[in-house]
Design brief:
The chain has helices spanning about 70-75, 80, 125-135, 145-150, 160-180, 195-210, 225-240, 260-270, 315-325, 330-335, 345-355, 375-390, 395-400, 405-410, and strands at about 5-15, 25-30, 35-40, 45-50, 55-60, 60-65, 85-90, 140-145, 180-185, 215, 240-245, 275-280, 285-290, 300-305, 340-345, 360, 425-430, 450-455, 460. By secondary structure, the protein is of the alpha/beta class. The strands form three sheets. Strands 1, 2, 3, 4, 5, 17, 18 and 19 form an eight-stranded mixed sheet that branches. The chain has an eight-stranded parallel sheet with strand order 6-7-8-9-10-11-12-16, with helices on both faces. The radius of gyration is 22 Å and the shape is globular. Bound molecules: zinc ion.
Length: about 500
Amino acid sequence: MRQEPLDLIIEGGWVIDGLGGPRRRADVGVAGERIAAIGDLSGRAATRRVDARGKIVAPGFIDVHGHDDLMFVERPGLEWKTTQGITSVVVGNCGVSGAPAPLPGNTAAALALLGETPLFADMQAYFGELRAQQPMINVAALVGHANLRLAAMRDPAAQPTAEEQDSMQRMLDEALAAGAVGFSTGLAYQPGGAARPAELEGLARVAAARGAMHTSHIRNEGDEVEAAVDEVLSVGRNTGCATVLSHHKCMMPQNWGKSRATLANIDRARGEGVEVALDIYPYPGSSTILIPERAETIEDIRITWSTPHPECGGQFLSDIAARWGCDKTTAAQRLCPAGAIYFAMDEAEVQRIFQHECCMVGSDGLPNDAHPHPRLWGSFTRVLGRYVREAELMTLETAVAKMTSLPARVFGLAGRGQLSEGAWADIVVFDADTVEDRATWEAPTLASAGVEHVLVNGQQVFPAEAGMARPGMARPGKILRREAMAQAAAGAAT
Ligand SMILES: [Zn+2]
């Protein structure tokens, strides 16, 4: 029987399946949006062949922590994703998302992280725009808890009335029905930080009832990090809502090492059956809006953007303060609204957290920043180059699983995160000997090295000039729903 020619055969590479199994020499055949065959395909006809000899062929990476909500509209090329092999991203983290829009007069500083595009009335409108734009990569969306407060509460700094709580829960339920995979909290920011357990658990019950999940930028990542981890674990434990601790870290030297206790706490919860996972970005510096209260407590703070003083982007706060002849707190107040990078983490601790069996990679990239944290362009290739090849923290197969099948399972992205016949053809081809991040603190928008081909749903998105397999479709990404109930992450990345 004559077989139909395949659209693409990736020939002769080392295939890593994403499930943790050892690499094997095989060809990967793509038909339409799916992987059609894996094995010796030398006898099969194909419209196009890619030589991958000596290279790794792996599932495309899943970035579990993105802030690209509005970038799908503003800068749809998403080069900071495709150039490092990311084929799916979870947006709407840290309590802020592209929808729902605040009530008139309500706002929050953290919304500035997202971009300039006005927020959408609801998730249905947001997804409608994404469909019209055709996303470059796959996108799963969380609803921001801050958005819910700003859209439902007349005074978002207060406690919600019973009516406002109902209204938030109804909005969340509608967003989940429209296709959101869950909600996110940003308890370190206002107005999310005003929330008490009853409010969070009310929302988490709505999510759990729909099989959805929640992620949390916890209330404190410094002196009170242990209590803050406890708080978010309680939300999961009391409601049955699957939980992800975002960008887990312990900031300030006096707190370095506390992850031993927080990870043990996470393991205890998992032992009790609470579905919990976490993510990191592989750098010792963090980045968010500029918070003047941190100016005197953190030695090195670098400004990423400033509305009143755009010329200060990329400069250290201490240098700006010296030039202006004022203290650092005053300088920070003058720079706001602004963004900053804070150097207050221990690299050894970041690496230890990453080795936890349910730890994933989330870039937490901020594409709207003028001088962004380099994690935006380099998180995934940095893991491959520095954590695997140089530091040998784990095998390449394990690292790939932590960036593919583990997040697919945690977020319920069926048919993603693995190379197997019938799976979606999200594929990255890279050179294990040369892959690395190039983005630095000084030059943060340099593309990675060693990534050779990236396919989303069977179509090439990098290098862009190589063209798409199927003409007539500008961008191949899809909106991903939470299809499968995620199993506890246990044993995911063995
Ligand atoms: Zn965050």
